[in-house]
Amino acid sequence: MWPLYAAGFTTAFGAHGIAANLGGHTEGAVTSLLVLGGLLALYDGAEVLLKPLFGTLADRVGARPVLLGGLAAFAVASALYVVADSPGWLWAARLGQGAAASAFSPSAATLVARLNPAAKHGRAFGSYGFYKSVGYTLGPLLGGVLVWAGGLRLLFVVLAVLGAAVAAWAALAVPVVPPLPKARQTVLDLARRLADPAFLAPTAALTAATAALSVGVGFLPVSGRAAGLGTVATGAAVSVLAGCAAVVQPRAGRALDDGRLTTRSGVAAGLSVTAAGLACAMLPGLTGILVGAALTGVGTGLITPLGFAALAASTPTERLGQTMGAAELGRELGDAGGPLLVAAVASLTTLTYGFGALAALIGTGAVLAFVHRRPAPVAPPPGTEG
After folding, report:
1. In this predicted model, what pLDDT tens digit does every residue of 36-47 receive, in sequence order?
2. Which burial class, exposed, middle or buried, applies to 171 when counting CB atoms under 10 A from its CB (0-12, 13-18, 19+)?
3. Are the beta carbons of 256 and 306 closer than 8 angstroms?
4. In the chain, is it the N or the C terminus that has fewer CB atoms within a 10 Å radius of its CB?
């Protein structure tokens, strides 16, 4: 399992490490905000388009080859910018990294499910989410140190070495998991399965969690600066968010496996806590920012392992790659849609109302989850009415 956790760390570290430091890049590749936005969108766009395709490929040829190929391609794409030594090649490298992550990210999640019994899926996905959260936390911090020490090329060198090392480790340690025989699936069959509440409900929750995380990472520092706080305080807020998410995920997974928590009640509680965190972010000053960050981290930490465990439990094993790829697509849409919603509302009003809009949307999801989990009333036996 450790190489799979390392793969999760790699995709998170690579995504946030570069994204957080492109804006301060001064070597000629990033010349305007438009260029910066294009480079950020290039990586995410590749993931949105390709994750479902690579998930389906993992079901067809096996998740392990797709995992190894994606990690190797990530190393090559990272090395491309280092070797080319040209600002223009940053675009090709960033596109290659996004395409490679689209391959090994859903494949790693598929293998987490395939290599663990259903009774331990909560623990497995909780640990996987923990190491991804560590990558999200260290990416901006360690990436900033590397860019300061040797420029953007040094960060790409580290990513190339990391991708190659994890690929070699996975090739040695991850067992062969052959694809399972499956019945022929039509487009209508796929649409029916993806429209099933067993897929839509956990995917929607994962989308909401990713939207909240993205908004917290992107806009809590803005809120802090508006309140007159320094970079240390605003950076601490983001670290609190990621740290709480990392700590909660393994514990939520263990609680699910031990029967102390159900998927539905845990996800509903996670949505409620996440909405409360975004509502607290509306409060002025450092207290509102830190409490909002902590609650958002706790809520999303509850949702993530439970959502993936629910998807694994409701999916035929031979279709896990396709399901994980589609669910990752939902997360990418949340990653982009959450900040867009908050930014759109904030541009018309203020950032406070932007936080409130997303809090209301996620809170509505929590209410629907709680209502849905209530048992239907039991009809009285015949002849006992009245």
Report:
1. 656 666 777 787
2. middle
3. yes
4. C
Which residue, 50, 53, 103, 43, is CA-closest to 73?
Answer: 103
Residue 50 near residue 70, CB atoms below 8 Å: no
End-to-end CA separation in angstroms for the chain? 60
226's tokens: 């508006």
Displacement of CA 383 from its chain's centroid (Å): 54
Q: What is the pLDDT of residue 225?
A: 74
Cα 266 from Cα 310, distance rounded (Å): 11
pLDDT the model gives residue 38: 66
CA distance 280 to 223: 12
CA-based Rg of the chain, rounded to a whole angstrom? 21
pLDDT in tens, 119-139: 888 888 888 888 888 887 777
The per-residue pLDDT for range 243-260, each reduced to its tens digit, is 888 889 999 989 988 889
What does 120-182 look like in DSSP terms, one character per residue?
GHHHHHHHHHHHHHHHHHHHHHHHHHHHHHHHHHHHHHHHHHHHHHHHHHHHHHSPP-PPPP-
Closest residue by Cα to residue 277 from 247, 245, 251, 305: 245
Angle of the 285-314 helix axis to the 320-348 helix axis, nearest 10: 150
Question: For residue 298, which of 273, 319, 327, 281 has the smallest C-alpha distance?
Answer: 273
CA angle in degrees (0–180, nearest 5) for 6-312-172: 30
Report the C-alpha gap between 73 and 88 in whole angstroms.
19
- Amino acid, res. 255: A
Contact 273, 220 (CB under 8 A): no
The whole-angstrom separation of Cα 102 and Cα 370 is 33
CA distance 268 to 369: 5
Count the alpha carbons within 13 Å of 153 in the hemisphere toward its beta carbon. 13
102 and 50 Cβ atoms separated by less than 8 Å:
yes
Q: What is the rounded average pLDDT for all residues in the chain? A: 81
